[in-house]
Every structure is written in structure tokens, then in C-alpha cells.
Amino acid sequence: MIYNTCHISQPKEIILGIKAWLDMSDSGYPSWVRLLDDVTGIVMISVAIAAILELGFDFVIALEIFALGLLLTGITWLVWGIYVMKTNTYARVFMIITGISVIGLSLIDFVFLSLPADFLIIFPAIGMMMIGLSRIVLGVIVGDIPLWIQMLQVLAGILTLNLAAFVFIFPNVSLEILLIFLIISMIANGLVRVIIGRSVVPQKCAES
Predict the structure, then answer these.
(1) Cβ neighbours, 10 Å, residue 32
(2) How many CB atoms lie within 10 A of CB 56?
(3) What percent of the chain has pLDDT over 70?
(4) pTM for the structure as a whole
């Protein structure tokens, strides 16, 4: 009889734990997410600078450094989709999908390091294009925020999309130049990440 009671209560505890986690994810804008935004923005800028410095020595290593920044960016988008974006279900799902996709794309450069460099650069470019599209979505969907913030989101998204698209539009351009375009877009997104994280946008997104 004691065994049966324990056996029944264990699934119940698991269900209650999952429910508590979901309630926590819907409880507004956690302070640790703001810290994550600040750290992500600073790391993105730092990684971009490190990639530029390494670019003169080894292109593949510079690309790997860039991929680290992209990985952290994907994690941040995933966190935003789970804990922050509540105002629009479609935007929330889109951000979660974007985060998971960007994480996967960034890891490809580490897993398949032996692939040609002109092939490896494609995956970070796709990841940055998805980030750019996400910024445009945020700028358009999230209402009741200052107009300059909406414009900043949309402009950053357009800039990121265009710079990342150069990898596909100008395949004959040197890989170093193409990576510089991606690095510029990462620096821009790092700055925007810090600005947006300190603005009213997260709180507005978290209002369900």
C-alpha cells in the first residue's frame, strides 16, 4: 500500500513541477533576462571585434569566433520566446523557432569544421537573416512603445537582412569581405540588444 501511494504521487509531483515552470515563464519580465540581454549585447560586440582581429590570421577560426556570438544570440532569442514575448502567440512561436534554428546553425560550423570555408559561412548568414527577420517582426508587432524604438528594431532588422544576404547575392566576393558584413551586422545587433533590453520593450512584450 505504501509503495502504491509513492508510485501515484510521483507523477503528480512531476505534473505540479511542470505547471510551476510554465507559471514562472508567464510571470512577466524576469530580472535575470535583463541581465542576459546586457551580457549578450556586450559579448556580441566583443566577439565581433575578436573575429575582426583574427580575420587577418585565420579565416576559419574567425568564423568560429563569430559562431560563438551567434550561438549566444540564438539562446537569447529562445529565452525571449519562452519568458518575455506574451503579447502575440505567433511572434512567440516564431521567436522560439528562430532561437532553436539559430542555435543549430551556429553549431554546424563546429560540428562540420572540415567543410570548405565558402560552405561554412552560409550557415551563420542564414542565422543572421533569421535574426534580422525577427527584429522586423518585433518592431512591427509590439505596440504601445516609443516610435524610435520601433524604427530602431525595423532598421536593425533590414540592415541585418541585407548584410547577411550579401553572402548569397555576391558569392564571388572574397570570404573575408563577406564575413566583415556579418560582423558589422552582429555589432549592430549587439548595440540594439543592449538598448532594447534597457527600454520598455521587454515589459510590453511580457504583458499578456
Answers:
(1) 10
(2) 9
(3) 78
(4) 0.78
What does the pLDDT read at residue 165?
Answer: 94
Nine cell digits for residue 83: 519568458
| Other C-beta atoms lying within 10 Å of the C-beta of residue 59 | 19
CATH of the domain spanning 29-206, picked from 1.10.357, 1.10.3470, 1.25.40, 1.10.150: 1.25.40
Which three cell numbers mark 116?
A: 570548405
pLDDT-derived band at 59, boundaries 50, 70, 90 = very high
State the residue for C-alpha cell 512561436: 93
- Tell me the CA distances in angstroms from 55 to 60, 171, 179, one per residue in order: 8, 18, 9
Region of 207 (left: φ > 0; alpha: ψ -120 to 50; beta: rest) is beta
CA distance 163 to 178: 8
H or E segment to which residue 67 belongs: helix 59-79
pLDDT at residue 147, as a whole number: 83
Is residue 134 within a helix (H) or strand (E), and if so which, with residue range? helix 122-141
Percent of the chain topping pLDDT 90: 44
Helix, coil or strand: residue 121: coil
Average pLDDT over residues 164-186: 92
CB atoms closer than 10 angstroms to residue 108: 18
Between 25 and 30, the more confident residue is: 30
C-alpha cell at 152: 530602431
